[in-house]
Amino acid sequence: MLRYIFFRVLLLIPTVFLMAAVTFIIMQLTPGSPFALGGMDRITPEARARIEAKYGLDDPKILQFGRYLKNSLQGDFGVSYVWRGQDVSSIIKRTFPVSLQLGFMALIVAVTVGITLGTLAAVNQNGPIDYASMTTAILFYSMPNFVMGFLLLLLFAVWLPNRGVDLGFSVSGWERPQDWILPTIALAAAPLASIARYTRGCMIEVIRSDYVRTARAKGLAERKVIVKHVLKNALIPVITIIGPIFAAIGTGTFFVEQVFNIPGMGKFYVQSMLTKDQPMIMAVVLIYGIFLALMNILVDVINAFIDPRIRY
Amino acid sequence: MSGTADQFDTPTPVVLGAGQDIDPPLGGEVAPLEALGASGEEWTRPHSNLWADAFRRLVRNRLALIGLVIVSTFVLIAILAPLLAPYGQSEVVDVRLTRYGPSWSWPMGLDKNGRDIFSRLMWGSRVSLMVGLASYLVILSIAIPFGSIAGFYGGFVDTILMRVVDVIYTIPQVLLVMLFVNARGPSLTNIILGIGLIGWTTEARLIRAQFLTLREQEYIKASRVAGAGGGHIIMRHLLPNSLTPIIVAATFGIPTAIFIEAALSFVGVGIQPPQASWGQMVGAASTPADIISTPHMLIFPVIAIGLVMLGFTFLGDGLRDALDPKGND
């Protein structure tokens, strides 16, 4: 097991390297330079050369990449081109926790509600509860998170208040805890639905298995059969989809933050895109990629830990 | 394996159904009637093949039928938009009536530039459809050779190719497409290229997995023994028999591409105004002030995106069930 974890972490190195290389190459191809912004294009060629020399922008590209890699590994992503006087790390330190909080709240909602819904559906297979939860699931599943976000906003922050039902939701903000509710639901909806659908499928498969028939035959209470025998085995495959779900929620924050005006990393990323703030863009992609890769390793390790059939 | 011999030497694509082996006794000319204890005349069930069967199963499924209707309507509107749309996509109806709410003349109201939202939605559907289809073509044109080679040759080649796929797969797709489009400039072509060049890994894996199982089948072995080369086996046997999973994957891949375009345009790095795109219409109407004062500018494009996504999901789910040889009848 330790060997497996070791190799997985080792594999992280080429992944991160490749990610950094791809981002670096794409950014080099991007037209627009730090000098194109805010009147910097009017400076004299001599001053420009001095600045380029200071920041190493006149070095060969391969050298720049090496330096970028070295600095990023030390947590130094350079200075933002747009947010004057702020270095990228401090912006990330401020915005990443916001995205992380939103993401984790959504993950918790998605996993708990999703598994509950899927279990209920499987236990009541082809009954009204099954149909109701699976119809809801398919609705949630197909809605892109920003569409879901706007639907929630329009319903709870515009339509209902206009009809005198004010539940205290506002169209933007992140300060008050009730501002967290709608974005969390918007972000959790689609992953929740996938988990529910998947849980249901796995549960039904297990319910049909021989050992469940045996458990019932020996007279175990239905509740005990479901919790002790079915759920325990059905959840193993469900854990494997938590990895992709993590990615979905992570990417989702980029759009949901835009919908609800949340000052997280995703909103900054989009702004950096529009303003071609290269150090910001590269830092966000890299940090986010590493974070995702780590989470995937974590999920795989948990999976290997839980499922005795998996041997490495 | 009633389809084996048939698969082997008949050149027409009709063989697809027989090769699939979903319904061997009904497969037509090769059905062993004596084995069923029936003479030819007593055979009453109409001649059918995989696609006809699948279609029948599809339309019997209520949700799938709804999905089919939504998706066909969407496609029709996209194709016929120049004939159907009352106004041009950047045509200003009346500069004095900006943000005008829904009315009899303009059922979805006017936007902040005084353009007809109903017409712009119709024009925008063309962008969505175009992105969905074209980027899926790009995806297939990369994934098919890539997955085929990995799955057919296996071994070392497979390991190397799949490592590449694994690494690309770990990079967050939407962010990378955003990066790509931002670098090359926001245009329809670049969005399509970006989605295609980055999003092909799922399909490549799918084709590879399909090939890995198929190449162990008897009719492939028979073909090999008969002296068929790799290219022939891939083109004539493996690819046609991988068509069903590819079609099912397309009903999920196409809406994903449509979603990515909408998401990109929504945050402002996709299709640029005055060209109409659903995502961009959403983005243009989504400041907190706009949401409160003129929700009509937001709700219609939001519903349009949601509806098309829902349609594809219904259709995709239905198709998967209809084409899945297991779990039917």
How would you concisely characterize the structure shown here?
With 312 residues, chain A is an all-alpha fold. Chain A contains twelve helices and no strands. Chain A has a domain at 96-273: MetI-like fold (Orthogonal Bundle), CATH 1.10.3720.10.
Structural write-up:
The complex is a heterodimer of chains A (312) and B (329). The termini of chain A are close together. Chain A has a domain of 178 residues: MetI-like (MetI-like fold). In chain A, helix 4 runs antiparallel to helix 5, helix 6 crosses helix 10 and helix 8 runs antiparallel to helix 9. Chain A is flat. Chain A has twelve helices and no strands. The model of chain A has no long low-confidence stretch (mean pLDDT 84). Chain A has 312 residues and is mainly alpha-helical. By secondary structure, chain B is mainly α. In chain B, 67% of the residues lie in helices and 0% in strands. The two termini of chain B are 19 Å apart. Chains A and B meet through helix 1, helix 5, helix 6, helix 10 and helix 11 of A and helix 7, helix 12, helix 14 and helix 15 of B.
Which second-level CATH architecture of the domain at 96-273 in chain A applies? Orthogonal Bundle
Class by alpha and beta content of chain B: mainly alpha
H/E series of chain A, N to C? HHHHHHHHHHHH
Query: Looking at CATH, which topology of the domain at 50-75 and 124-322 in chain B would you report?
Result: MetI-like fold
Q: Name the structural class of chain A.
A: mainly alpha
CATH architecture of the domain at 50-75 and 124-322 in chain B: Orthogonal Bundle
Output the radius of gyration of chain A: 24 Å
What is the H/E string of chain B?
HHHHHHHHHHHHHHH
Mean pLDDT of chain B: 81
Strand proportion of chain B, as a percent range, falls in: under 5%
